[in-house]
Amino acid sequence: MVFLFLLCFGNIYSQTIKGKILNATSLQPVENSTIFNLASEVIAVSNSKGEFGIKAEKFPVMLHISADGFADQLVEIKNSDQKIEIYLILTSEVLSEVIIRSTMIPIKLQKIPASVSLISAEDLKRIDASNLVTAFNNVPGVYVNQGALNTTKLNIRGIGARSQYSTNRIQAYFNEIPLTTAEGELTLDDIDLESLSGIEVIKGPTSSLYG
């Protein structure tokens, strides 16, 4: 009898927090998002309408919200009567914009009207510091052949493929300093990978800006 009394006494003070999980961009409900009560370690899942209910014994309560494709969020709930609408941000929207200089004027990569590929600093860190070929071969439309020393041949959409042992007809710059000789030859093996923070590859008619 004592056990039953204590059980009922505990349930009197247990309250249900009700709320809704929404996409911050489209305002559409987010289904199957996980709501975790950090205090009691109780877990709830939102339904197809984004609605959820989770038990709480005392306030304020800190809830941890997570869903696939969205950034995690911590929300403090002060009482059960509070109208709760939680807006989750897509992870793709929290990434920083990439600024490139392929049109002589710095511009966001998403807005440039040209075929431009970017090899970032993170991409360069993943490859062997003594081998630049791997970085270029991951770029669409670019192919690199490597033989003995100073025989690395780069071609972009077929341009430069006619040279047998070197790269020609491709203009290259390092901090706006031309690397291509007056004869149109480019030696990729002379480039120190450690000195690069990124590489921009410009394909198509836009490259005519650089001659």
How would you sum up this structure, described in words?
This protein has 211 residues and is mainly beta. It contains 3 helices and 17 strands. The protein has helices at 2-12, 121-125, 133-137, and strands at residues 15-23, 34-37, 43-45, 51-56, 61-66, 73-77, 84-88, 99-100, 107-108, 115-119, 142-145, 153-156, 167-168, 173-174, 177-178, 185-186, 199-203. Strands 3-2-5-6 form a 4-stranded antiparallel sheet, with no helix packed on it. A hairpin with a 7-residue loop joins strand 11 (142-145) and strand 12 (153-156). The longest helix has 11 residues, at 2-12. The protein starts with a helix and ends in an 8-residue tail after the last strand. Mean pLDDT is 77; it is low at 1-12.
Structural class: mainly beta
Give the rounded overall mean pLDDT.
Answer: 77
What best-fitting shape do the alpha-carbon axes yield? elongated
Strand element count: 17
**Helical content class:** under 10%
Written as H for each helix and E for each strand, in order along the chain, the element string is HEEEEEEEEEEHHEEEEEEE
User: How many helical stretches?
Assistant: 3
Major sheet: size, sense and barrel closure? 4 strands, antiparallel
- What percentage of the residues does DSSP assign to strands (E)? 25-35%
Report, as a whole number of angstroms, the end-to-end distance.
Answer: 92 Å
Low-confidence stretches are 1-12
Strand order of the largest sheet: 3-2-5-6
Radius of gyration, in Å, reads 29 Å
Give the key terms.
211 residues; mainly beta; disordered N terminus
